[in-house]
Specification:
223 residues; 6 helices; 9 strands
């Protein structure tokens, strides 16, 4: 279980300790998912499962996606955990390949609500689920001077340095890296960008679109 005193690295270790048990539970869901994919007539086909681990009581959300029927046995997996601290709800997304995580703090989801969703009725956990449903792919680039200026214009210098900018389906994220933990600090929409910075960020948007095409995901959205 994640507790308030844990550091970023301790949170990462806690979540990855749960991964073997999580994958065992997920195997049963994959069998169910396979049956549904083989019967499906519209693609991409996705299903979301909430799994709470037995010993540590951590909550995970696993999204399985098949873009085509032949992917029934090898679906795309999007996975993240949700945990609470006194300041609000956090999300931590797995990057299983390199054993890293991306942590999204309450401030990130506050900005997501204000700048992207613009809906005060959703609960914090509903907001987190909405984000990962729509923005499951994050294309990252190193934060150069121009990107840092965009961040400071909207968040202020007091919010610290950034080391990367990320592009998602709905906006642009800014964050800092701490070894194998990335802290995704905030998000902005197209309408938040000052005119003289739009060309800079639109170059990244083109790279994001190309990355989707390279992965065969150009028209892929979850719903």
């Amino acid at each position: 279980m994640i507790v308030n005193t844990m550091t970023l690295q301790e949170i990462r270790l806690e979540l990855f300790k749960d991964l073997p048990a999580l994958l065992i539970k997920l195997a049963y869901r994959k069998k169910e998912f396979r049956r549904k994919v083989l019967k499906a007539s519209r693609f991409p086909y996705s299903a979301t499962y909430e799994i709470k681990t037995g010993v540590r009581k951590n909550l995970f959300v696993m999204i399985l996606v098949a873009k085509k029927k032949r992917e029934a046995n090898d679906p795309l997996l999007i996975s993240y955990g949700i945990y609470d601290r006194p300041e609000g709800s956090y999300a931590a997304a797995f990057a299983i390949r390199d054993a890293s995580i991306l942590i999204y703090p309450p401030h990130f989801f506050k900005r997501y609500r204000e700048r992207i969703v613009k809906d005060d009725k959703l609960s914090n956990k509903e907001l987190i689920r909405l984000y990962f449903t729509k923005c499951w792919l994050l294309y990252r680039a190193f934060a150069e001077k121009g990107y840092e200026e965009v961040y400071r214009d909207l968040e202020g210098a007091a919010n610290g340095e950034i080391s990367f900018i990320g592009i998602t389906e709905e906006g642009y994220c800014f964050g800092s890296s701490f070894g194998n933990v990335d802290l995704v600090k905030t998000i902005i929409s197209e309408e938040n960008i000052f005119d003289h910075k739009k060309a800079l960020l639109h170059e990244l948007r083109e790279k994001y679109n190309q990355a989707k095409q390279d992965e065969g995901l150009d028209s892929f959205t979850l719903g």
